[in-house]
Amino acid sequence: MSTSQRLRITVDLNKCVGSTICVQLSPSVFALNDQRQSSVVDPTNDTAANILEAAEGCPLAAIVVQDAETGQVLFGAKDAAV
Amino acid sequence: MPLVTDDLMAPDVMTDPHSYYRQMRELDPVFFNERWGGWMLTGYDDVVQVLRDPDGFSSDRMRFLARELSEADRQRFAPIFDVLSQWIVFRDPPDHTRLRIVLNKAFTPKAVERYRPRVRAIVGDLLGEIEGKGRMDVVRDFAYLVPLTVILGLMGAPDLDRDLIKQWSEQLGVFFFLRADEPRRREIACEGVTSLVEYLTPIVEEKRAHPADDLLTALVAAQERGELSEQEVIATCVLLVFGGHETTMNLIANGTLALLRHPDHWERLKQQPALIESAVEELLRYDGPVKATVRWVKHDVTVGGKTLRDGDRALVVLSAANRDPQQFTDPDRLELTRSPNPHVAFAHGIHVCLGASLARMEAQEAFLGLTQRLPVPVVATDELEYHPAVVSRALKALPVEF
Ligand code: HEM
Ligand code: HEM
Ligand code: SF4
């Protein structure tokens, strides 16, 4: 399943503690890197609803989801958005 | 013989664990403590490595504990094991993952933000009673009431008897937090667990009959979908009541003590309430409620250049990591604006505290209320005493005048 809206997903590695929650909730988008922190492997590989649920599920609020075209923040800390 | 004591319960270690663990880290950050019977990890990088590695390190402390008991004792303490072995904090994947996903929704930063107004009101009510008195025991009159009231409200059981619950939780705490001054600790904890289970079971059944928009109803619904067992529902209720207040209570008490020992910080927070978020993170780092946790090694693994063997246990010292100078500049200094502040007071990895966002929000409201409403208090005793415990950093009382 893929999302029609193009999303930009960022993980703040200063916040991520490697809980793996995002990985459980949206396993084709998030994966653990060598440091066992979350990294985005494919931002198109899930529904926007699932991706947003994963971002919301992060206990550290480390994930920011934006509309890739407009830059509008769909979930996450506004100040963390790039 | 090591140059520093290997007695984790020595009186000096209880009063000032930070100096002790600093010495330990300087001596050897990966130290095998013969007396305790396991490794002590006191360096930040090593602590994070272990907490992020559930394949190498097990949290199933109940299984290991059961192994050390005789068959007779296992029978005797069955009530405790039956409940505790279901607790998420003692499970490894895949059971851990299943439980965590069910519970996570109710505890996300966004979900708990909805409770902030209620928490603010609870804090306001308590301080309204305290304000005119000029004195209080921060632990008994304030710190314990905030989180307990909040968690009962969140679970959907706001009218439960807080004094009874407090008493049973304390009994349970005797067991958990290794209050080794109590020889009957396992018996006491059994009584506590049994009472809590008996008390909470009909309340859960009530939710099954009359669903509402609260956490207990969500647990029952998850059970009906086959995601939780019946035992797990009750055990989780006990865990939330217990885990939901003992630790937060200690954060509020330890943080109040840190602030009143730095009156300029108290004043600064009063003038600049916007500092509250980073202030709470710093109080967590500086003197957090959970000094350490334990992991069991699942297969040989290298930590800080040493090999930990399959079946070894490790004391993962969170408060030592939080004061490692390689990670934090001037680690023994309280700095309310410290940023970044990647402390491990809530642990790291898959078991990172489920209630972290809730605890943060409660502590923010508690310290905002205290600093806004009260002048800087002074400690009204010559001697502050901590419960003798390896794991928890818990003041017995904090009498103050203001
Ligand atoms: C300042 C307050 C708190 C601190 C410092 C704290 C600390 C911790 C730590 C260090 C752990 C990890 C234990 C381990 O890995 O062995 C943990 C886990 C846990 N905490 Fe907290 N906690 C606090 C408040 C709370 C609250 C308010 C709740 C519940 C409402 C809670 C519920 C839990 C649960 C359920 C776990 C197990 C999570 C898992 O295994 O995935 N805690 N906590
Ligand atoms: C929230 C609920 C928690 C429960 C229910 C719990 C429970 C327990 C229990 C039952 C034991 C065994 C006691 C014994 O050996 O007699 C234990 C040991 C321990 N727990 Fe917890 N714990 C909880 C949270 C934590 C947290 C947050 C930490 C720390 C982060 C922690 C750290 C430890 C440690 C260090 C031990 C010592 C184990 C040993 O010596 O083998 N626990 N805990
Ligand atoms: S949910 Fe958050 S903390 Fe957990 S792995 Fe994903 S980004 Fe990291």
Radius of gyration of chain B over all CA atoms, rounded: 21 Å
Number of domains of chain A: 1
Percent range of helical residues of chain A: 10-25%
- Whole-number total of structural domains of chain B: 1
Distinct small molecules: protoporphyrin IX containing FE, iron/sulfur cluster
Number of helical segments with 4 or more residues of chain A: 2
The CATH architecture category of chain A equals 2-Layer Sandwich
Q: So what's the CATH class of chain B?
A: Mainly Alpha
From the N-terminal CA to the C-terminal CA of chain B, the straight-line distance is: 47 Å
Strand content of chain B: 5-15%
Please state the average pLDDT score of chain B: 91
CATH superfamily of chain B, please?
Answer: Cytochrome P450
Number of strands of chain B: 10
Strand order of the largest sheet of chain B: 1-2-8-5-3
Please state the overall shape of chain A, judged from the principal axes of the Cα atoms. globular
Summarize the structure.
With 82 residues, chain A is an alpha+beta fold.
What does this structure look like?
The complex is a heterodimer of chains A (82) and B (402). Chain A is of the alpha+beta class and 82 residues long. Chain A has two helices and five strands, in the order E-H-E-E-H-E-E. Chain A has a single domain, classed as Alpha-Beta Plaits, CATH 3.30.70.20. Chain A has a three-stranded antiparallel β-sheet, covered by helices on one side. Chain A is globular, with a radius of gyration of 11 Å. Chain A starts with 6 loop residues before the first strand and ends in a 7-residue tail after the last strand. Chain B has helices at residues 11-15, 17-27, 44-51, 61-68, 71-76, 78-84, 95-104, 109-113, 116-131, 138-143, 145-155, 162-176, 185-209, 215-224, 230-243, 246-260, 263-271, 276-287, 318-321, 356-373, and strands at 30-33, 38-41, 57-58, 135-137, 292-297, 301-303, 306-308, 313-317, 378-379, 399-401. In chain B, the strands form three sheets. Chain B has a five-stranded mixed β-sheet, sandwiched between helices. A three-stranded antiparallel β-sheet of chain B has the order 4-10-9. In chain B, strand 6 (301-303) and strand 7 form a beta hairpin. In chain B, helix 9 (116-131) packs antiparallel against helix 11 (145-155). Chain A binds chain B through residues 14, 17-21, 24-25, 35-36, 56-61, and chain B through 52-53, 97, 100-101, 104-105, 107-110, 340, 342, 346-350, 352-354, 356-357. Bound molecules: protoporphyrin IX containing FE (HEM) (2 copies) and iron/sulfur cluster. One protoporphyrin IX containing FE (HEM) is lined by residues 59, 88-89, 100, 147, 151, 239-240, 243-244, 247-248, 251, 288-290, 293, 345-347, 351, 353-355, 358-359 of chain B. One protoporphyrin IX containing FE is lined by residues 59, 88-89, 100, 147, 151, 239-240, 243-244, 247-248, 251, 288-290, 293, 345-347, 351, 353-355, 358-359 of chain B.
